[in-house]
Amino acid sequence: METDSYKLQCARCGKLHADAEDRFLLHCDEDHGPALLRSEYGQEPLTLQPDHPGLFRYSQWLPIRSVFDTPVRTAVFRSENLAERIGLENLWLAFNGYWPERGGVMETCSFKELEAFPVCARRPEGCDDTLVVSSAGNTGRAFLQTCSRHAVPALIVVPEAALPAMWLTVEKHPEVKLAVLQGDGDYLDAIELAAKIAELDGYFPEGGAKNVARRDGMGTVVLAAVEAIGKVPDHYFQAVGSGTGGIAAWEMSRRLNREGRYGSHRMKLHLVQNEPFALMSDAWAVESRDLPPMTEKEAKDRIHRLHSGVLSNRKPPYGISGGVYDALTDTAGQMYSVTSEEALLAGWLFESLEGCDLDPAAEVALAGLVRAVRQGTIDSSDVVLLNLTGGGRKRLELEETIQAVQPDYLFASKNISHSQLEKQLLHAPIKTPA
Ligand SMILES: [Zn+2]
Question: Hey, which bits of 240-389 come out as E strands?
């Protein structure tokens, strides 16, 4: 694959960069405030790659240097039962999870596989350093599975609370490792620990929201949607913890607008958070680019009470140039904060009407849609895309053996020196039974 098939443009100053030769370029080098880079793919009309059944059919708009053979991509279909119940005529479901009859083949039951594949495919040729990825749960599982299946060296760093979400349907590859931050550390603490590890020789950072491969991978949800619907949807609903999926959907919809074939109207973002931890929703309600202040203790107390524990980033890319605030502003978007009771009810409604279980974040997204319809925010004839970011675990359990992943490394604290880190990673892995 040509390495110059994409450039990276700063969302703040517009400067164009070539990707780094040996790593991932994650930042603009100009002296200005925080900003995301975006991929630029030139003016060519989008051409799908029919040889690829999975997300690499959208390779032209992925910042990658190789491709993987995988059937994984978003299944998009029109809802009948649920749509009728909530009063919508054009509700399209973007299902990311396990539901074979509908085309759902993600065995981790999470849309994070859409991130894991392009990130692995963006690695420079000949790079055998270990990718360091932090996660609140489903990202970690997706990388554990994808990297194991395709032998990509990786270290996944999660807080202890996310350990139950670390399971696989394949054997964990020996070069794929799981590190657990013990105690009351949360996602942000895991991010900070991972950043420190990534500075060591032999490791490099995946980059989270700053990695364009992650965002454009998630943006393939919108590409799968226009392929099924034939046009850019009027509305896009998703549950957000970091908001990266929302940014990704916005970037891809703008790319489609410029390409022109699927319409030039803005796809309005509707991003849903889970009470009582809804920092971005609270900030957007008062039209602020800054997140409301909250002590670490208060935030962690609230995160413990979430229905969906993955919606828990204390420092989401909200105010950064090219981030959630800009995406909402550009699309005249809206944010919602729904209760866990609303989410549970939405999950029950979906399973009884459509026939598949959802994961808690997808339940939160549907609860947001129900709220929006009730409030009259959208018209019944509008074309609505609901991104169901996870589901199908119950079905998967009937068909596959699910293996819990044991940690390779345990860290008592994120406050650890580089030399201590190195020592532990090199010399003190936990001995697991052969
Ligand atoms: Zn810049």
Answer: 268-274, 334-338, 383-388
How many CB atoms lie under 10 A from the CB of residue 99?
Answer: 23
Ligand 1 centroid, distance to 29 Cα (angstroms): 6
CA of 320 to the centre of ligand 1 (A): 12
Tokens (6 digits) for 250: 């916005």
Q: How far is the CA of 210 from the centre of ligand 1 (A)?
A: 13
Residues less than 5 Å from ion ligand 1, measured at CB = 10, 12-13, 15, 28, 30
Contact 49, 59 (CB under 8 A): yes
Higher pLDDT, 187 or 388: 388
With 60 as the cut, is the pLDDT of residue 434 above it? no
Instruction: Kindly report whether the global pTM for this prediction surpasses the value 0.85.
Output: yes
pLDDT in tens, 236-245: 999 999 999 9
CATH number of 130-201+402-427: 3.40.50
CA of 10 to the centre of ligand 1 (A): 5
Residue 434 C-alpha to ligand 1 middle, in angstroms? 50
Domain limits of the chain?
Answer: 75-107+212-396, 130-201+402-427
Architecture of the domain whose range is 75-107+212-396: 3-Layer(aba) Sandwich (3.40)
